[in-house]
Design a protein that fits this description.
The complex is a heterodimer of chains A (179) and B (274). Chain A is an all-alpha fold and 179 residues long. Chain A is 92% helix and 0% strand. Chain A has one domain. The termini of chain A are far apart. Chain B has 274 residues and is mainly α. In chain B, 66% of the residues lie in helices and 0% in strands. The chains are: A mainly alpha (179), B mainly alpha (274).
Chain lengths: 179, 274
Amino acid sequence: MNLLVLAAETENPLVPPIPELVIGLIAFVIVFGFLAKKLLPNINKVLDERREQIEGGIEKAEAAQTEAQSVLEQYKAQLAEARHEAARLRQEALEQGTALKEELRAEGQRQREEIIAAGHAQIEADRKAASHALRQDVGKLATDLAGKLVGESLEDAARQSRTIDRFLSELEEKAEAAR
Amino acid sequence: MSADLTQVLAFETDCHIFDGCGFPGPGLHSFLFEPLWGEAGTTSAYFNKPMLLALLGSVIIVAFFWAAFRKPKVVPGKLQMVAEAGYDFVRRGIVYETLGKKEGEKYVPFMVSLFFFVWVLNVWSIVPVAQFPVTAIIAYPAALALIVYFIWMSVTFKRHGFVGGFKNLTGYDKSLGPVLPLVMVIEFFSNVLVRPFTHAVRLFANMFAGHTLLLLFTIASWYLLNGIGIAYAGVSFIMVIVMTAFELFIQAVQAYVFVLLACSFIQGALAEHH
């Protein structure tokens, strides 16, 4: 105890005691040994690895971005092409539709005319047949009537026929003149 | 009172103001420790509290970095991240700044060890129970300054040869003309003798003063606890808290300065002669 007090009075605080010096060196060498030989090389390796991974990651990301860009452009081109194609098809369909309509209309017209013509012919034929039958019936009735009035002299068929025809022709001529 | 000036903590005495006993102020005796075991003065090989703290500090640093860097991961955990931040601070903030990346890489492990060793030894100052900055004993800063000095000198002579190294240390420059001998003497004295001394003493004195201040206010807080003195004891205690916070700052700064100076010495040795 007294020794220490004495030491405090006499000892220069700037003169290092040897035991403390030795312990200080030992303590530092322990720290330095562990850090320099094992722990710092460890972490340096990992730091390098990390930097490489980050750089690799950046490169990868850049590659992905370029790829995405090219794919996007490709899609855009395809989309434009598809739109173009659709427009073309629509146009074509429109044209085809118009043509078809035109054709159908022409066909309808033709059929209508045909039907009308057929009708006309039928009517003409019927009229002729009716006219013919009427002529015979009228002739027969007239001769029958005339025969009854003048006797049986008119029964000669040939004369009959001629007379009737002449009569009818006269009638027709009259009718036509009247028209 | 006179019996035990070394180990007595302020609270262990019953001495208060107005009790008729003097103020047991801190002094050189506050920095002397009895051996933890054995008889004082009987042997030159002893083991005291600062030694224990120094070795414990080593163990703590190694344990911390062991836990953080033993199996480091590319994606760091919390502990590894903290340790990396400390490592990177010394590596980039001090070594690369002064020595450059190329020349400095070799000295990174040494400087990192130095920084954390000094810092932890400083921080013991405010760790409860320990409460003593190991670097406030000149032997510890001196040991570290000696190592730096040897590295610095060997780099000087390895880089420049004997004559070149001598020129480097003396700031040899022909253009100075007749003043050259005077400059050389001053530079030699400054570089070779004063620098390592101031390097160690700067750290030692800062921690010594800081510890003395803390002791002063702590002892006063206790000593003043009597009568009207209680009011002043409160003020003194606030000062203890303020000084503790300030010391925390100074401890880091001094560790930084110590390593920065070590780097700048080596930088001077590596520099081409102008």
